[in-house]
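Data card: per-record layout.
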Amino acid sequence: MALFFLAVAIVFIVTAIRGTTSQLLVLLKSDFTTSNNFGIWILAVAAVGGIGYIPGLKTVSNGLLVLVVIVLLLSNKGFFSKFQQAFVS
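The structure for this 89-residue chain is written out next.
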């Protein structure tokens, strides 16, 4: 958890130095408030991760988490699509 907060702090320091903090905040707002937002994926991962705290369902939770990550990466608007779009444009 400490590494996550360290990474967030580094991102905010770099954007502050470059003077692009407002652009970062606009991008973050659009990630969580648009109709096709990222909040749904966070909720799905949290729900499936929460199932893992039930003693007998840890392996089921791990399998579902892998499935959610695979769907997230392979969806039409997922990681590989955006990655390819960034290099083609």
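Known properties of this structure: The two ends are 35 Å apart (CA to CA). The chain has two domains: 1-35, 38-89.

See the next section for split statistics.
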